[in-house]
Design goal:
By secondary structure, the protein is mainly α. The protein is built from 23 helices and no strands.
Length: about 475
């Protein structure tokens, strides 16, 4: 088991070093959002913790975390002089550490969810694949918040799986300092903890120990029925249930209350520039997420057997199929928002996703709905082994993270995607190898475009580079 993990780490470090050197040699100066992040971190390196760039929209977690990580290097090579050390390249290197941490935490989570004595290789391949998930991995080479934000969110989830709820909530609070939307994954962890209590309660209420596991709807209806019966005939049992849930989730609740206080004081979730981050109700974001999920997991979600299974399901369930398509048309017609940046900035994959696919012509956005339906049915089938409380927490938190976003940004999909992949059944070794190679191909292509295919922009003094 240890050997497979070490092998995954070595592969990760070798490829990451090559990509990091290539991208940094090509672009030595801050690029894109680094124009804001790097100078802000350098202010902190100089000991100026009151300075703040109003264009930055996230909390200062990345800059604060960079200092202790770089301190040992500064102590050895620059006698503690952070000003000399906090170059663009050195600040970028911080994300190599966080990305390596992501690899390890992903392995730990895969171990807790899927461990058996024969699947050590599969767990290592899963961790390697997800640590190199292209939307996340590219930012290992830049000074962005994503690797660190995902690292702390994953650590919080891992602690929740180990029933260490207070540390999980504390780490979740730290994750919010890197990206405010991480509050939803703190609440997701709370939902898991609460669901575990309810599930245990339901199992104890079974009259027949040999009775099969409840279906989703049965479990929900049974839960409400038992709560009603307890309130009417045994209030003490109900209050005991509430107390047990409170003891599990109180630390998460404190984080949630603290975040609400922050939003009230800050008069919004975003700090700094809010003009380009106005919330809306953009339901098609969920469709985009499903589409992207199937694309990156095609080796797990697209096969002749799965396509045939989907077609049978659609034919045998005409009411569900019809409702999905009607709702899909309504979502696309009434709730589709396209941020002006998505149509003006051709330096990102999302520009081409929208302009060449979704907005290819007037009807394309509707013609894609059957594709979303396949994605939804297949996606949901991969989570059938999870209980209804887990599913509800996941759906609510994913929707709350994505739907209010006017801008299509694939980085918003990272945490929902990782949670889906970690919780689906363990794929075969062959499929995992295909996934690792596919991600390596995409990462190589993206780095190649970034390094070797810069292009000019009108009224821009420097060359522009393609990236996620």
């Amino acid at each position: 088991m240890l050997l497979t993990l070490v092998s995954a780490i070595l592969v990760f470090l070798v490829t990451t070093t090559v990509f990091f050197v290539a991208t940094n040699n090509a672009q030595r100066q801050p690029y894109m959002d680094e124009v804001f992040h790097v100078p802000q971190a350098q202010q902190y390196c100089a000991g100026n913790f009151t300075a703040w760039d109003p264009m930055i929209t996230t909390l200062p977690g990345l800059y604060l975390a960079s200092l202790p990580l770089l301190y040992p290097v500064a102590a050895v090579f620059s006698r503690g002089d952070f000003r000399a050390l906090c170059t663009t390249s050195m600040l970028r290197s911080v994300n190599i550490l966080f990305s390596l941490g992501n690899l390890y935490v992903l392995y730990i989570i895969a171990h807790r969810l899927h461990y058996n004595r024969k699947n050590a290789t599969e767990m290592a391949l899963t961790a390697l694949a997800l640590a190199t998930f292209p939307v996340l991995y590219f930012f290992t080479c830049l000074y962005y918040t994503d690797p660190a934000a995902i690292f702390f969110a994953l650590v919080s989830y891992s602690l929740t799986l180990s029933n260490k709820h207070v540390p999980a909530a504390v780490v979740g609070a730290v994750a919010i300092l890197f990206r405010q939307t991480n509050v939803m994954w703190v609440l997701f962890c709370a939902g898991i903890a609460k669901g575990a209590v309810l599930k245990k309660w339901l199992q104890l209420e079974k009259k027949d120990p040999a009775e099969k596991v409840y279906s989703d709807w049965t479990m929900l209806s049974r839960t409400f029925a038992l709560i009603g019966q307890s309130l009417r005939y045994n209030p003490r049992q109900f209050w005991n249930l509430l107390m047990e849930m409170f003891l599990k989730v109180w630390s998460y609740v404190l984080v949630g209350v603290g975040f609400v206080a922050f939003v009230i004081i800050n008069k919004g979730i975003v700090v700094g520039d809010r003009s380009n981050h106005q919330p809306c109700v953009n339901f098609p974001q969920l469709f985009y997420f499903l589409f992207v999920t199937v694309f990156f997991s095609f080796m797990h979600m697209i096969s002749v057997r799965q396509v045939l299974s989907f077609l049978k399901y659609a034919v045998r369930n005409p009411v569900k199929t019809g409702i999905f398509h009607v709702v899909g048309v309504v979502f696309v017609y009434k709730f589709m928002y396209i941020h002006e940046y998505n149509l003006a900035d051709n330096r990102h994959y999302n520009f081409y996703f929208l302009s060449k696919l979704v907005r290819r012509n007037e009807y394309m956005k509707y013609l894609l709905i059957p594709t979303y339906y396949y994605a939804f049915v297949t996606f949901w089938s991969k989570l059938q082994h999870r209980d209804v409380f887990w599913k509800l927490a996941y759906i609510i938190c994913t929707a709350a993270t994505l739907v209010p976003q006017r801008m299509l940004e694939f980085r918003y999909f990272i945490m929902p995607y990782l949670l889906f992949r970690l919780n689906m059944p363990m794929p075969s070794k062959r499929a995992l190898v295909a996934e690792v190679l596919f991600y390596f191909l995409i990462n190589s292509l993206t780095v190649y475009m970034y390094v070797y295919k810069p292009f000019p922009w009108p009224n821009a003094n420097s060359l522009q580079r393609f990236m996620w």
